[in-house]
Amino acid sequence: MTSIVGILCHDGVVIGADSSVTFTHGNFPTIEQSSEKIKIIDKSIIIAGTGAVGLKQRFCSIVEEGWKQNLFTGSEINLSTLIARETIKNFGQTAISPPKIPFGALMAYPVDKTHYLCEFGVGDFQPEHKTENLWYVSMGSAQPITDTFLGFIRDIYWGDGLPSIQDATFAVVWTLGHAINVNPGGVNGPMQVAILEKNRKKHLEARILGGEELGEHKQAVEDAKDTLRKYKSNHQADDIQVEIPKAPDN
After folding, report:
1. Range of the domain at 163
2. DSSP annotation of 246
3. Which of 46, 78, 103, 161 could form a disulfide with 55 if both were Cys (CB 3.0 to 4.6 A apart)?
């Protein structure tokens, strides 16, 4: 079971995930334990997957090999098509093919100094890039929770389009925290968050946020919740005057 969230920003990409892995015997869950779900390739590419762990390992290997062969150039559409084709071909070697591929992934990566966020759909593994019109995505078993919460965040915070990395990280931390708190099972902390942004040399670099940075964003979420609580305390029902209409005369 997994919950992953990705946001395309005007200055980079943010991807977050929970860390729960469920072991199964057939369709019966046996145990649940913590595992790292986000992989960084050569400080340049972020990958987070949902579904079969073995398929994620194979997908990461394909992406890493493509990076080593300098395939991350030119058109992002051609690149993602190539990655999807090679992955589906690889999966097919063990009789796994669309539309029943039990794996999907998010990939943040650079091409010619520009950052991209691509979703590879569960089932068919078809690539879809996030854009200025639709810049966020969630995947995994908690998607019904995270999709709706991201819609709430967009309505409140993102009226002007693509967010900054700072604002997107805040949103990812809040969304994952909400999913971890209310999901019916199989999604648990600690959350992991990675960002792709320009470093001091103006080169795009991928890294996982450390505990202190993550803690600052968690505190910002708590501050936002406190603001909502204060709003509630200032608008109690007994302070609202309601005029009850008179019954009509017979």
Report:
1. 3-209
2. P
3. 103
In a domain, 24, yes or no: yes
> CB of 157 within 8 A of CB of 182?
no
Instruction: Decide if 52 contacts 1 (C-beta within 8 A).
Output: no
Query: pLDDT digits over 56-76, tens only?
Result: 999 999 999 999 999 999 999
List the structure tokens of 228.
């909502």
The model scores a pTM over 0.85: yes
Closest CA to 111 of 62, 63, 70, 154: 70
Distance CA(214)–CA(29), nearest Å, equals 30
CA distance 187 to 130: 24
Instruction: Count up the domains in the chain and report the number.
Output: 1
Within 8 A by CB and 6+ apart from 250, the residues are none
94 in any annotated domain: yes
Sequence-ordered list of residues with C-beta below 8 angstroms from that of 74, at least 6 positions apart, any chain:
111, 112
Burial class (CB in 10 A: 0-12, 13-18, 19+), 158: middle
